[in-house]
Amino acid sequence: MDLLTRQPRLAATALLVPLLVLASPGWLRLDGVGPCWAVLWLLPWALSDGPFSGACAGLGLGLLMDALHPGGVTQVPALLLLGWWWGRMGRRAPPIQRSFSLGLLALLGTALLGLTLTLQWGVLDWFGAREALQQGGAVTGRNLVDQGVNPALLALPGWRWDDLAGAGFQVLLAQTLLTALLAPMLCSLQLLFWRQMGAGWRR
């Protein structure tokens, strides 16, 4: 945890993540979807600084991303878990240096993050549908049902199961592949930088 305790200002580099999300150029997109910048920053940080620092960084980064995209879902649990897991891996396993390993970890992390968001959207959809159907016993609900319209569908803004099965899967696949392709280059440079900084402070 050398980076976080000795130079907490370095954690402020996480502020680059929402800036990159907002300013992600069009040529760095796959099918209109950009990479998961949170994973590309958190992976090398956690590998070089340990599980506690990785979990703290994941928590802070998740709160930043939730503020950027307010709504009923959160990225905090997935990023916190990934930071802790990658931090343990960096401390207990041999140092991860191969580009393939970084790409695979970024792929798994992006897929896990996307699946947790999809699961949250699905749960919100299910609870919203139940609530709308329970309130649909009123006169308005009966009229809609008589006309062949499900009132639950009209009451739900945002994602639905049809969206998650179609466009949601396409977005998840595109973001996962693009992040895995960028990770060997970007994460390798960051990992080298963080490890050099940490080694310099231990002397």
Q: What is the topology?
A:
Blueprint: H1 2-6, H2 16-22, H3 37-49, H4 51-68, H5 76-92, H6 99-135, H7 139-146, H8 151-155, H9 161-202
Helix pairs in contact: 3-4, 3-5, 3-9, 4-5, 5-6, 6-9
Give an overview in words:
- With 203 residues, the protein is an all-alpha fold.
- The chain has one domain (2-202): Arp2/3 complex 21 kDa subunit ARPC3 (Orthogonal Bundle), CATH 1.10.1760.
- Helices cover 75% and strands 0% of the residues.
- It has nine helices and no strands.
- The radius of gyration is 20 Å and the shape is globular.
- Residues 137-159 have low confidence and may be disordered.
How would a crystallographer describe the biggest sheet?
A: none
Q: Which segments are poorly predicted (pLDDT under 50) over 5 or more consecutive residues? A: 137-159
Helix content: over 70%
Strand pairing plus helix content: what structural class? mainly alpha
Shape: globular
> What is the level-2 CATH architecture name?
Orthogonal Bundle
Order of helices and strands: HHHHHHHHH
Question: Proportion of β residues?
Answer: under 5%
| Helical stretch tally | 9
Number of strands: 0
Overall mean pLDDT:
77
